[in-house]
Amino acid sequence: MTRKKGGNSVEILGINLSSAPEGEVLKKIVKRVEEKKKTFVVTPNPEFFVFTQDNPWFKKILNSATIAVPDGVGLVWASWVLGTEPRLKQRITGADLSAGLLIEANKKHWRVGVVGVRRGVEKEARVFIQNLQKKYRQAKIFNLEEINEWQKKEWEIIFACQGMGKQEKWIQAHFKTAKAGLFMGAGGALDYLTGFVPRAPAWFRRIGLEWLYRLFKQPWRWRRQLALIYFIWLIGKAKLKN
Q: Does residue 156 fall inside a structural domain?
């Protein structure tokens, strides 16, 4: 079921999403960080929605977030099929939002912590952090897994990169106690910014086929794409119910 949530919020299959444009979302997050308001950002895509079907705890975590952005053209399509008000007019990718936040961190000399880097592979994690630091030289970027008592230090941004479900659960466990302004589940978004994964050309992204490019570059992802079929079925079922 979908229903109007008012303002810039809309519900799809029981999950609340922001319908605000990317620039507006970025400004809101930056303002909250500057005002030292704790903020939890999630970036659901259709795979997240499928995962919640058998994992209601995950839906609860997603709906506890301060901001949930639609990271997937499938969610924009679902919004129009279901007739939500307001409509989702664009997706906001985790990669683009992360890049925007890091640009702000660079301007403002923010402290940024990252956890779950390259699945714990130490050599790759070291290169990952070095590449981020070279790109955003004025920010202070650290691998939290190498910082003793990181919870007692102050951070403007913490990116959790453990992957769907794990990263959101990790954030939930540390949100209240850690001294950080923004927690964001980033998945593999930062891999694009550090050169570990090539990103689709801009025109691919504009027409909503970034997932196809990723599948071509990483054929092992084909099993994950099956979730898209189930997501389409869920939306069709919700449409009939409405």
A: yes
